[in-house]
Structure formats: structure tokens, C-alpha cells
Specification:
Blueprint lengths: L34 E2 L1 H30 L8 H30 L3 E2 L1 H23 L5
Parallel strand pairs: 1-2
Length: about 140
Amino acid sequence: MSFDPHSFEDVDFSRTLPALPQPPAPATKKKPELKNSGVGIASFITSLISGCLAFGSIATGLVMEAALPEDEELSEANIAVIVLSFIFFMLGTLLALVMGIAGLCQKDRKKLFAYLGVIVSSFTLLVVVVMMVLGPPAE
């Protein structure tokens, strides 16, 4: 009997082959967790602090003016301190606005605090401009 390699008569097809190992499932690529923008956080904190202090300097001036007798006025030194502190805190608010815009321009960062910083500093600037246009409160 000769062996024919192309003959299928001697092959038992009912027998199963062992299972081949399956390749591992492709790893799903998760987006890396975005970090908060450091500039945005600084913008938010700066806008809160400088906004509160700017309104505090306005309130201080009004309270000092109201506490004086009617025939007296604030001294020039008191007025200078109030005005300079107000200008300083408004510059802080402008800085917070610029930092917030810079935080919004960053890629691959969360932008929540940058948005909040822009909103709070814009609100502060808007209220101060409206107060300046309307003038001091009438007595």
C-alpha cells in the first residue's frame, strides 16, 4: 500500500483540534483625565479676592463719609488711601480677566475655573463701570 499525501481517505475528520489561544481583546484607549487649568484656577481665586476687596474699598469710603459730621469732609490722606486701594484691586480684577482668557486658550485642560474667573471679573468690572457712570449715591 502506497502512501498518497493528497488522499483524504485515512484522515479522521470527526476528531477536533485543540483550541488555539485567542489573541487578547484590543485595549480600549481611554482619553486621559484632563487636569484643571492652573491659570484658570488662579484667575478664579484672584477675581474673587480682588472683586471683594474692590467693593470693600468702595464700602469703606461710603461708611467713612457717612460717619463724619455734616460740616466735615474726609481728609486727603483718607481719600488717597481709598482711591489707591480701589485702583490696586481693580488692576487685580483686570489681571484675573486676562488670566481667565489665557486659561480658556489652553488645550487639553479643563476650563471650568477659567470660565468662572472670566465671569466673576467681568461682572466686577461691569458693576464698577455702571457705578462710575451713575455717580455717587445721592444724599
